[in-house]
């Protein structure tokens, strides 16, 4: 049997649990905090595989193993790797209180509506994009992925009214600190090694609605919304038939970063945000910028709006997972090429002028994308006098998309 013990934030280990253990495994600070039974072997956790091999030798001999951990070891902790290696039936897990629960308790906030993301040993960009997209996020940090790095990434792109709450040495009366800082302030500090967890909050929405299902909210029940759901100028809005296929090819989800370039009304940006992605809308018209912000507010989502002309303005943005290009004129090939060089997964281009298709396609293929496309022609029901209905044809639109082959992918989220 393997007994996995989480001390809980600031709590001491129950020394009774060590009685009769032949092997005690844990981090150096965990092992230094207890007195081992006489004759017990001690293994300091570093690389996991060598430690697991030692555990296996003891388990095969029927000897008892104790693994010491922090907080709740079943919550982004060692229970997963032990269960994968030895099976859940051989584990006796005794959890403590997680740092996430304690940090929210210090603020007096519920956390059933919080999204928890781990950056410990993982790609920080996932955590960054979740923080951009959601108003209440807890980030479990690690070396190279702490408050400074998280703050620097959030500060590069407008991320709403986000505040970082850095909780350090939770449970230690002498050293515990809970500090509210802006992303820019977090980026400029050395936080040391005592950080327990970082909360990223939009404090105006920190309480949130009453929840039935904890964690990430369910996705929208509908997408490809009617054009009447968006403020727009002179019907300059991506039609819902086009949006439906574009969203299917973009595949936006929580942890993604999506660019909507030449965003216009921002209908694609808003829909991607509704599906959970972090979104940057790029628009060169000042009135368009305000329109996008109004549409995002109307649908209750966060969309970072950048006022500028592509492709020049794109250089200051983080690399996206997917890009929708809805404008561009004569500059379209240059814009598509710039997006394709940066996109990790997909670029989708919407064009009304078919003579622009060959150059846009070439820009995608030169960047190594596999391309496909379709001409969308639709007719909608329209009423006529006398209680009859006709079909009203919409303007045809060519939708082109490029997908980066897996072998040349820039990486995936962990």
Verbal overview:
- The protein is of the alpha/beta class and 414 residues long.
- The chain folds into 3 domains: 2-97, Cobalt-precorrin-4 Transmethylase, domain 1 (3-Layer(aba) Sandwich); 100-205, Methyltransferase, Cobalt-precorrin-4 Transmethylase, Domain 2 (2-Layer Sandwich); 227-408, Vaccinia Virus protein VP39 (Rossmann fold, 3-Layer(aba) Sandwich).
- The protein is built from 12 helices and 19 strands.
- The protein has helices at residues 28-32, 48-60, 79-86, 99-107, 124-133, 147-156, 183-187, 240-250, 267-274, 286-298, 332-342, 357-366, and strands at residues 2-6, 23-26, 41-44, 65-69, 91-94, 115-118, 136-140, 162-168, 177-181, 195-202, 257-261, 278-283, 304-307, 322-325, 346-351, 370-376, 379-384, 388-393, 397-403.
- α10 (286-298) links the parallel β12 and β13 (304-307).
- The two termini are 30 Å apart.
Structure described in brief:
The chain has 12 helices and 19 strands.
Keywords:
414 residues, alpha/beta, Cobalt-precorrin-4 Transmethylase, domain 1, Methyltransferase, Cobalt-precorrin-4 Transmethylase, Domain 2, Rossmann fold, 3 domains, 7-stranded mixed sheet, 5-stranded parallel sheet, 12 helices, 25% strand, elongated
Blueprint (SSEs and pairs):
Layout: E1 2-6, E2 23-26, H1 28-32, E3 41-44, H2 48-60, E4 65-69, H3 79-86, E5 91-94, H4 99-107, E6 115-118, H5 124-133, E7 136-140, H6 147-156, E8 162-168, E9 177-181, H7 183-187, E10 195-202, H8 240-250, E11 257-261, H9 267-274, E12 278-283, H10 286-298, E13 304-307, E14 322-325, H11 332-342, E15 346-351, H12 357-366, E16 370-376, E17 379-384, E18 388-393, E19 397-403
Parallel strand pairs: 1-4, 1-5, 2-3, 2-4, 6-7, 11-12, 11-14, 12-13, 14-15
Antiparallel strand pairs: 7-10, 8-9, 8-10, 15-19, 16-19, 17-18
Helix pairs in contact: 5-6, 11-12
């Amino acid at each position: 049997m393997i007994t996995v013990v989480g001390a809980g934030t600031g709590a001491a280990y129950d020394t009774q649990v060590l009685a009769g253990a032949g092997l005690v495994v844990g981090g150096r600070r965990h092992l230094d905090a207890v007195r081992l039974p006489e004759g017990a072997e001690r293994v300091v956790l570093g690389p996991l595989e060598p430690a697991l091999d030692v555990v296996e030798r003891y388990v095969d001999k029927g000897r008892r193993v104790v693994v010491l951990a922090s907080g709740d070891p079943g919550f982004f902790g060692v229970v997963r790797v032990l269960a994968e290696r030895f099976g859940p039936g051989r584990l006796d897990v005794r959890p403590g209180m997680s740092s996430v629960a304690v940090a929210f308790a210090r603020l007096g906030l519920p956390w059933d509506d919080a999204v928890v993301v781990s950056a410990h040993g993982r790609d920080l960009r996932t955590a960054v994009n979740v923080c951009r997209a959601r108003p209440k996020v807890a980030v479990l940090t690690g070396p190279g992925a702490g408050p400074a790095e998280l703050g620097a990434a959030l500060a590069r792109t407008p991320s709403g009214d986000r505040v970082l709450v850095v909780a350090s040495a939770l449970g230690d009366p002498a050293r515990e600190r809970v500090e509210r800082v802006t992303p820019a302030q977090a980026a400029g500090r050395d936080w040391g090694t005592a950080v327990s967890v970082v909360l990223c909050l939009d404090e105006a929405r920190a309480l949130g609605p009453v929840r039935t299902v904890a964690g990430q909210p369910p996705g929208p029940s509908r997408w490809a919304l009617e054009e009447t759901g968006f403020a727009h100028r002179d019907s300059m809005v991506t039609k819902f038939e086009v949006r439906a296929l574009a969203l299917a090819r973009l595949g936006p989800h929580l942890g993604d970063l999506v660019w909507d370039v030449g965003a216009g009304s921002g209908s694609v940006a808003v829909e991607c945000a509704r599906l959970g992605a972090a979104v940057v809308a790029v628009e060169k018209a000042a009135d368009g910028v305000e329109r996008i912000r109004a549409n995002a507010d109307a649908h209750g989502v966060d969309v970072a709006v950048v006022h500028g002309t592509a492709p020049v303005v794109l250089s200051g943005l983080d690399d996206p997972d997917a890009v929708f290009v809805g404008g561009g004129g004569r500059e379209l090939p240059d814009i598509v090429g710039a997006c394709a060089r940066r996109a990790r997964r997909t670029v989708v281009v919407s064009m009304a002028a078919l003579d622009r298709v060959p150059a846009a396609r070439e820009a995608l293929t030169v960047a190594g994308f596999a391309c496909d496309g379709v001409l969308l022609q639709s007719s909608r029901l329209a009423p006529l006098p006398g209680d009859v209905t006709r079909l009203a044809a919409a303007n045809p639109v060519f939708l082109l998309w490029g997908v980066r082959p897996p072998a040349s992918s820039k990486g995936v989220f962990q």
